[in-house]
Structures are given as C-alpha cells and as structure tokens.
Amino acid sequence: METGNEYMMWTALLLSRVQFAFTVSFHIIFPSFTIGLAAWLTVLEAFHLISGRPVYRRLFEFWLKIFGVTFGLGVVSGIVLAFEFGMNWSRLSEVTGPIQGPLLTYESFTAFALEASFFGVLLFGRNKVSPAVYLFSTMMVALGTTFSAFWIMVNNSWMQAPVGYAVENGVFVPTDWGAIIFSPVVWVRFPHMLIAAYLTGAFCVAATGAWYRLRGVYAVEGLVMLRMGLFLAALLIPAQLFLGHLNGDYVHDRQPAKFAAIEGRWHDEQPAGEVLIAIPDEASEANQLELKIPYLGSLIASMRFDSKEIGLTSFAKADRPPVAIPFFTFRIMVGCGLLMAAVAWLGSFYLLFERKPWQRLLLWATFLSFPLPFIATLTGWFTAEVGRQPWSVYGALRTADAVTPTLTVGAVTASLIIFAVVYLVIFSFGTLYVYRLLRAGPVQSEPIVAPNPKRPLAVSGGNPAVETTQARGWL
Amino acid sequence: MILFWAGLLAVTTSLYVLLDGFDLGVGILFAFADEPNRRKMLSAISPVWDGNETWLVVTGTILFGAFPAAYAALLSAFYLPLVVMLCALILRGVAFEFRYKSLGFRWFWDLGFAGGSLVATFIQGMTVGALVEGLPMKDGHYTGGTFGWLSPFAALCGLGLVLGYSLLGASWLVLKCEEPIRARAYQWLPVLIVGVLGFLGCAFVASLAMHLELMHRWLERPYLLIFPLIGAIAAYGLFDSVRQRNDPAPLRYSALIFMAAFGTLACSFWPFMIPFALTVEQAASPPASLTFMFWGAGLFVMPLTLIYTTVVYRLFRGKAAELHYE
Fold first, then answer.
1. What pLDDT was estimated at residue A454?
2. Would you give the end-to-end CA distance of chain B in angstroms?
3. Which of A43, A112, A449, B129 has the maximum number of C-beta atoms within 10 A of its C-beta?
C-alpha cells in the first residue's frame, strides 16, 4: 500500500474522530439537562395537582419554556449522531450493525417517538386534555428521555465491554441479547449517567433559585427551587460517588489499559501508589511533577494494601490509549463532583438551619455552581471514550478499522467546518435565549401581545427583568 | 422476518415522506408569505413537526438495525449531501422556537426555516434520483467518490421533490388554515399540480432517453402500470377538489399521488435495496437481530407509536388556532 494513501486514511480517521467527539459532546449537554428537567417537571406537575399551590404551576410553566428550547436542541443534534454512524463509521456499522443497530432502533422507537409525541401535548395541549392526561404526558416525556439514555448506555457499554456475540465472516452476530442488555457494565454505567442528569437538573434549578435570591426577585419561587434542587443534590451525590467507584471497578477488571492511563501508572507496581496530580509524558513513559500517595492506588483498585496493579508499559504501544486526556479529564470530573458535594451539603445545611452569616456566600456558590455538572458529565465521557482507544469495540475492533474507507480528507474537513459553524450559531443563540428566559423569570405568562410585532418580548407589566431585555433589544 | 422489516421500512419511509413532506412543504411556501400569515402557517405545523421528523430517525435506525450493509453503503455514499441536509434540518428545527425569541434576528431564523426546508427537500429528492439512476457500487460497497451521486437527473429529482412537498404543504394549509392563507394555498395548488405532473413527465422521458436499467422493469412487470394509473386518477381528483374548494380532499389526493410514486419505485427496485448492487436479502442482519427487534419494537412499540401519532393528530384536528409564543 502506498504510504501517501495511508497518511490520507489516517487523517480522515482523525478528523472523523474529532467530528464525532464534537457532535456527541455538543449533543450530550442537552439530554443530560433535559432528562433531569423532565423528571423535575413531572414532580412539579404532581405537586401542583396534589397541593394546588400556584407556585408549582408557575414554576412548571417557566421551566417548560426552558425545556422547550433545550429539548429542541437535543433532538436536532441527536439526529446527526444517528446518521454519523453510517456516514463516518460505515465499517463499524456494517460489521457491528446486527448488534448496535437493533439497540439504537429500540432507542429511537421506545423513546424518541414517545418523547416527541407527548412533548407536543405538553407544549400545546394544556387546554385540550384533562389534568390527569397532562400529568401522564409529562411522565411519558420523562420516561422517554430515561429510556433513551438506557438504550444509549446499553449500546455504549457493549462497545466498552463487548459480550454476547460471535464473529461470523467478519460480522458481529448477536448470540445472547440477555447478556448484552443485562451486562453488569450497563447496570453501573446507566445509573451513573442517570444520576449525572438528575444532578445537572438539580444544580441548574438550585442555581436559578440562588440567582433570584441574590437579585431579590421571585422570593417564593426562588426558595422552592433552591430547596428542591439542593436537597435532591445532597441526597444524590453520595450515591453518585459510590456508582463512580463501581464504574472504576469495571474499568479495572475489563479495561486495564484505560485504568492505567486514568491512574497515570506507567509501570507495574506492588503495592501501587495513587497519583493525585502529575503531568504524564508519553515520550519518556513517566510522570513529571508527580504528587503520589503510597498504598492508596492498591486500596482504590483492589480494596487491599498489597495488590499488584498493572502499568501502561505492560501493553504494546499500539494497544495503549492516549494518556494525558483520560488522566486529566478524570481528575476534572472528580474535582467537579467534590465541589458539587460541598455546595449541596453546605447549602442544604444552611437551608435546614437558616444560618444567616453564610447566606450570601452560599447563594453565590450555588449560583456559580451550575457549570459543574455539565463539566463533570463531559469530562466523564471523555475519560470513558478516549480511554477506550485505540479500540472502537474494546479488544475486538480497532477505531482505524471502523472508519469509512472511501472517506476523503476534503469531505470530512468540509463537514467538520459546516457542523462547527451551524452548531456554534445555534448554541450561541440557544444559550442567549435560555439566559433571557431565566433572567426574566417565572412572570405571569399570559400570551403577550406586542405593540411592535417584530419585538414580542419588548413589552411587560413593569417587570424590571423584561425591561432590561428591552434595553438590549438590538439582538 | 426479512420481509417484515423490509415492509416496515417501506411503511416508515412513506410515513416520513408524507408527514415531514407536508411540513417541509409549508416551510418552502413560508418564503412566499408575510408575517401574520407566517405565524398562522407555523401554528398549523408546530404541534406535529418534530414527531414527523422522528420518522426519519426511525427509518434510519431500522435501516441500521435490520439492513446494516445498506445503511453503511448509503450513508457513506451520500456523505456530503447528508451533512448539508442534517444542518438544514437543524436550522429549520430550531427556527420554530428561536424566531419568537429573537428580537432583531428573526429574518435570520426565517431564512433558516425556509432555506433549510428547501435544501433538505432538494437533497432528499436528489438522493432518490441518484438511486434510480444507479450508484457506482462494487461488492456491496460504494465506489463513486465524494461526488459520485451528482448528476443532472438527480438534480431534476431534487427539484421535483421540492414541487411535490410544496404540493403536500399547500394541501395541508388548505385543510388547517382559515382565510387568507386558505385562499393563497388554493392559488398555489394548481401551479404546483402542473409543476409536479410536468416533473413526472420529464423524469419519465429522461429515464427512457438514458436507457435506465430500472426502465426494463416496466417491461418485465407490466402490473407496475397500475401505479401511474392511480397517480393519474388522484391528479384528476386533486384538480377537481381544488375547483370545488373541498378543504380536506387535496391532502388525500396529494398523498395518493405520493403513494403511487413511492409504490412505483419500491416495486421496481425489488428485490434490490440499492438498485442492482445490494439486495434486501444481502443487506439484512442475521435472524438473531431481526427477531430481537421484532418481539419488542416491531410487535409492540411500532403499533403503539402509530396509535399515539394518530391520537396527537386527532387532538390537533380541525383548523389550527394561532399559537402564542413568547
């Protein structure tokens, strides 16, 4: 084979990886927010039906608007992924299609259609259906988003730890669907992702509540959001840390090279230390500026003080993942998790005991904490996916053999640029519109009749937030 | 089992073409309306458009699960056009919400909405055209390079689908909207019918002139002639219903024309999935995959999805009320 051709293949491969990473990272932001938000909407609607307190209804209508914008972005960015498997990874979809295809079919069938159909009722059916049916529709949307996440996690877990298959004529044929769906890996990774989504929703809600308290607006709504968000987060965080540990166990047992990369462990060690922070250097196969605690590595990996833990140099260079990315993204994820734990627990403590001196500081901390769950989710996925390299299906199909063979550098460069431009435009505007909605808050939202039809937002019943928007009417 | 999934694929594809067809068509016609009318046109499709679009995803994932070889070959063959189509669908999808949230950029989202609808439709038509003409394939893999799908015939089919979806869109507007949109749509309809019939004629002549392999099918399978016959009857019914201003009828007849065209293609492709390169049988997943999909997705979820799609449409039946956004 000509070397030039090989070089070209490699570049189309790398660009395809960058493109998939970009589009999937962009996408995951929205589901991780909307899965949590859909559950929260269900709770609000149920609370309102039970207690009849208007504040729950106001909050529901308010968060439904935000759900609408983010759900739309999640749907449209998700369609791209369903196509990219075939477009960029046609070899992968051809040989693993008999397994990944049905899983993704279930995803789109059980969830996508469920979500999209009942979401229409949510947005436009308030006056067309009974309250019970409306609540049911809310639940169906929440259930749909959860199912969606479940099938995606089954599929991805199969790529991480393939089970229940046989290779016939180069094609991965399913032999045991039960083993694929009820793989223990699925049942630690799916809850981890689900709770990540609930934490994302909880922190966004709590941060919005804190923001209103700081600005001295919407006192009732703000307190409800702050309470519900922080209490839920405080309860979920310990479970999430524990599930994170279980995830580490499966990586340790099934993906030792990824585990070694995450740990920054270059050589076999007995007993193994735990590298807290360092700069891993692939050229010299060693860490620089290393801060390491002896014995802790063995304890974390095997629950013993004297276990032998495998280092990266025990694997051929061609079988090692890149080290720096999983090493750092894992630490960022854990750091975000610990910060979230601190905010959730201190904040809940304050809410229970009304400690005045802490108030503004905690409100600011809660307000500023909203990016943490997003960063943690993204870096967690980076750790999982980059750490799986150089495999597309771990130990069974290399990423280099998964890419579309006919893909040219020009075509992927063009598509990457197109996706980047379109995504940046819709993401910037989407963020801006969500920010405006959040800033304006749960105003009594009778349909607003604009005096100037080109600027429907530029009217208000004397609400300062909306007036600010009016002052910024140039956008 | 293979037959079941091929049949289901035909059902979801035709559902997508009919359902997203009319809302993409409304998107194209959107360019020719003024602001108050634009709002009403959007109100006529906003409760259902995203449900309609999921049929594209459902079709894509059935193709992936049941016919992975065809999925891999088709999607990698149409790489660039699909990228552009997806971005067009994204822009048009977010425009539904964003145009009402934007303060000075509404023109941009309107451009994205109408332009996105137009581009997505054109590309869908073009890919069908390229398939009819025949893709360069070898051993079940695409070999045509980045622009191997591009041809005047494919472009003609792109144009044809733009007219076709607009026809569905105008028929939908007649059904769902009050004056003055209803009157505008009735003005558009005859023009679009003539356009669509003209396109079908051109495509037929071009196919004959190019000696397309597909045309031999017509000699081998004379029963195929029933589809153009149905199409012709539907076209007459459509003209008649427009003359009588019978609001619900045009959509039925337009849909019938589409079904006739779809039936023609499906029956002349059979047993090939990608004409004359990959058969349905060759492209299919092993029985273990098809059976797994059948017992859950095929037997339960698919009928359920159809039922609640019907329910949602019934919920929003009648003339559309203008929806209020903020």
1. 34
2. 49
3. A112
List the single residue in A with minimal CA-CA distance to B323: A124
Taking only the tens place, the pLDDT of each residue in A274-333 is: 888 888 888 888 888 888 888 888 888 888 788 888 888 888 888 899 999 999 999 999
Model pTM?
Answer: 0.87
Q: Any CB–CB contact under 8 A between A276 and chain B?
A: no
B65 contacts in A (CB within 8 Å)?
Answer: 97-98, 101-105
Instruction: Write out pLDDT tens, residues B28-87.
Output: 999 888 888 888 888 888 878 877 888 888 889 899 989 999 999 999 899 999 999 999
Test mutation, A61, A77, A90, A168, chain B, max B CBs within 10 A: A90
Q: pLDDT per position in chain B (326 positions), as tens? A: 888 999 999 999 999 999 999 999 999 999 888 888 888 888 888 878 877 888 888 889 899 989 999 999 999 899 999 999 999 998 888 888 788 877 778 888 889 999 999 999 999 999 998 888 888 888 778 888 888 888 888 999 999 999 999 999 999 998 888 888 888 889 899 899 999 999 988 888 888 788 777 777 777 888 888 888 898 899 999 988 888 888 888 888 889 998 988 888 888 888 888 888 888 888 888 998 999 988 888 888 888 878 878 877 887 777 776 655 43
Q: Indicate yes or no: CB of B83 within 8 angstroms of CB of A173.
A: no
- Per-residue tokens: A198: 């609930």
Distance from CA of B269 to the nearest CA of A (A): 22
Spatial distance between the Cα atoms of B3 and A261, rounded to a whole number of angstroms: 48
Please report the ipTM that was assigned to this predicted complex: 0.88
- Cβ distance A156 to A104 under 8 Å? no
Collect all residues of chain B within an 8 Å Cβ-Cβ radius of residue A94: 68-69, 71-73
Contacts of A39 (CB under 8 A, 6+ apart): A142, A146, A198, A201
Give residue A466's pLDDT: 34
Domain ranges of chain B: 2-315
**pLDDT tens figures, A15-51:** 999 999 999 999 999 988 999 999 999 999 999 999 8
Min Cα separation B317/chain A (Å):
11
Tell me, letter by letter, the H, E, C secondary structure of B120-147. HHHHHHHHHHHHHHCCCEECCEECCCCC
Distance CA A399, CA A89 (A): 9
Vertex A316 angle, CA A315 and A320, to 5°: 70
| DSSP notation for A147-189 | HHHHHHHHHHHHHHS--SEEEETTEEEES-HHHHHT-HHHHHH
Residue A279: φ, ψ to 5°: -115, 105
| Closest residue in chain A to residue B306, using alpha carbons only | A113
Which of these CATH numbers, 2.70.70.10, 1.20.1630.10, 2.40.50.140, 2.60.40.10, describes B2-315? 1.20.1630.10
Q: How many CB pairs under 8 A join A and B?
A: 256
Distance from CA of B25 to the nearest CA of A (A): 19
A435 shares contact with chain B (CB less than 8 Å): no
Distance between CA atoms of B49 and B55, rounded to whole angstroms? Answer: 10
In the stretch 296-325 of chain B, residues with CB closer than 8 A to chain A read 296-297, 301-302, 305, 308-309, 312, 315-316, 323-325
What span, in angstroms and rounded, lies between the C-alpha atoms of A123 and A75? 15
How far apart, in whole angstroms, are the C-alpha atoms of residue A12 and residue A25?
19
For helices A184-215 and A324-353, the axis angle rounded to 10 degrees is 50
- Which residue of chain B is at minimal alpha-carbon distance from A97? B68
Distance from CA of A27 to the nearest CA of B (A): 12
Whether B70 and B283 have beta carbons less than 8 Å apart is answered as yes
Of B76, B84, B309, the CB nearest to A418: B84
Q: How sure is the predictor about A385, in pLDDT bands with cuts at 50, 70 and 90? A: very high
